């Protein structure tokens, strides 16, 4: 029987393992921590019984993607839930904007037809678009015309694309999704991630896993048990010599770490490319237990699963540029997850779990809790008094818990134009690490960060195709 070792049990490692095990490969997963799951775990971060998502909370690229369809995780207990409003963006004085599933409803509330012109075609053809964006950019797209249409928007700096909107609300609503890229909004390609997430919001929504992101991990672990795979925890692997020999090695690690683990098994040119991989700005998260939820002045934000906090487009553009230069602003961009809006069972006794993080410079050493709460107070006065418990992590805490988050970079690599196109290195097959049947399957490979499993699935499919040859 063909055997495979998977190093790292984050969502992409588990996705690779499920894909291989379902194909009949004998799979063993090695995880350095005591609990598998990586960035898709859920934990009692504030109060007993109140589950907070350890990192990722919403999963817009997970619905009906190739891995989810192939793995059939719904048969292993995974259920999705959608908020009424996918994401919202409060502005000063109780103003704001909201993204609904219906793009027509969104445009009507924005009063800006450019939103429909720019993003309507992407949303209508999202199934074909998403099938292309989750694969390496050097491959031929399945839908060339649709992908070209996407590229005309995605390749632009976000501040250029935002000029198409005539209202502050539309510009701000776009700024919030563009900022997910953790890069300055005046740089080439800074519209790409925002345009993708925005199209997903109107096409399929921004769902949560019922019960928390841990439910995705639990479903994959059940699938692995069903297919006879083995998970070994508390297993720190520093070299392939630490584990039994296998026909396939999957590494859910950073690129440089993969080169270190494989050693001489990686050709020098490949190892050099992996070590040149760059990381970007960081996140500083805080988990809050909030009585009654956050009292946003902009009422639709109370019904939104995700809320982007940062003010106007111009304000967000300034602070994102500061962070990229290593300067910590006093009013950072903050992403707020209100998972109980979509999944009411997550709240207990009217106490709601809220997961937020601020964008901070790489390696920022301080706790950002007070900065985050000040930003929340700006748009939701009185929220401080509703917080009954809190916990926080620094960038160092993030990296210590998950070495793939270098310097606190939770998207596992800078989303610069070159790395958007050619991560982790320029190659027709960026997963394959030379002739030794070793493959990189982490979020450093296409399509990048997010609990969608596609990086692991793509890497595993590459390994299976190589076996067939």
TrEMBL record:
<dbReference type="Pfam" id="PF13450">
    <property type="entry name" value="NAD_binding_8"/>
</dbReference>
<dbReference type="InterPro" id="IPR036188">
    <property type="entry name" value="FAD/NAD-bd_sf"/>
</dbReference>
<protein>
    <submittedName>
        <fullName>FAD-dependent oxidoreductase</fullName>
    </submittedName>
</protein>
């Amino acid at each position: 029987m063909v055997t495979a070792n998977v190093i790292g049990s984050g969502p992409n490692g588990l996705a690779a393992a499920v894909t291989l095990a379902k194909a009949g490969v004998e799979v063993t997963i090695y995880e350095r921590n005591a609990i598998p799951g990586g960035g898709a775990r859920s934990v009692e971060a504030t109060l007993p019984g109140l589950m907070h998502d350890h990192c990722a909370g919403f999963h817009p690229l997970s619905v009906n993607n190739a891995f989810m369809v192939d793995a059939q995780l719904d048969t292993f207990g995974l259920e999705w839930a959608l908020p009424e409003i996918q994401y919202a963006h409060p502005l000063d004085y109780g103003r704001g904007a909201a993204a609904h599933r219906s793009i027509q409803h969104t445009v009507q509330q924005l009063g800006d037809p450019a939103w429909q012109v720019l993003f309507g075609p992407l949303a209508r053809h999202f199934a074909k678009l998403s099938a292309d964006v989750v694969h390496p950019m050097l491959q031929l797209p399945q839908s060339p015309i649709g992908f070209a249409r996407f590229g005309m928007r995605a390749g632009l700096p976000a501040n250029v694309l935002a000029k198409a909107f005539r209202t502050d609300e539309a510009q701000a609503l776009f700024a919030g999704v563009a900022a997910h890229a953790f890069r300055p909004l005046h740089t080439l390609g800074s519209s790409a991630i925002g345009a993708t997430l925005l199209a997903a919001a109107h096409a399929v929504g921004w769902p949560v896993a019922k019960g928390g992101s841990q439910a995705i991990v639990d479903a994959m672990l059940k699938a692995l048990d069903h297919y006879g795979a083995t998970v070994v925890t508390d297993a720190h692997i520093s070299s392939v010599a630490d584990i039994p020999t296998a026909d396939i090695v999957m590494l859910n690690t950073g690129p440089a770490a993969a080169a270190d683990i494989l050693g001489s098994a990686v050709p020098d040119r490949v190892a050099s490319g992996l070590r040149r991989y760059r990381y970007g700005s960081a996140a500083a998260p805080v988990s809050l237990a909030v009585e009654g939820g956050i009292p946003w002045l902009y009422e639709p934000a109370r019904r939104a699963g995700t809320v982007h906090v940062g003010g106007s487009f111009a304000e967000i553009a300034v602070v994102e540029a500061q962070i990229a230069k290593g300067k910590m602003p006093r009013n950072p961009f903050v992403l707020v997850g209100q998972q109980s809006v979509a999944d009411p069972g997550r709240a207990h006794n009217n106490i709601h779990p809220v997961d937020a993080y601020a964008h901070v410079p790489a390696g920022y050493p301080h706790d950002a809790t007070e900065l985050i709460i000040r930003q929340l107070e700006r748009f939701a006065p009185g929220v401080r008094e509703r917080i009954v418990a809190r916990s926080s992590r620094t960038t160092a805490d993030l990296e210590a818990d998950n070495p793939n988050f270098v310097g606190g970079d939770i998207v596992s690599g800078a989303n610069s134009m070159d790395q958007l196109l050619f991560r982790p290195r320029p190659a027709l097959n960026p997963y394959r690490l030379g002739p030794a049947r070793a493959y990189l399957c982490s979020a450093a490979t296409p399509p990048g960060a997010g609990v969608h499993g596609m990086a692991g699935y793509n890497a595993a499919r590459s390994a299976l195709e190589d076996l067939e040859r």
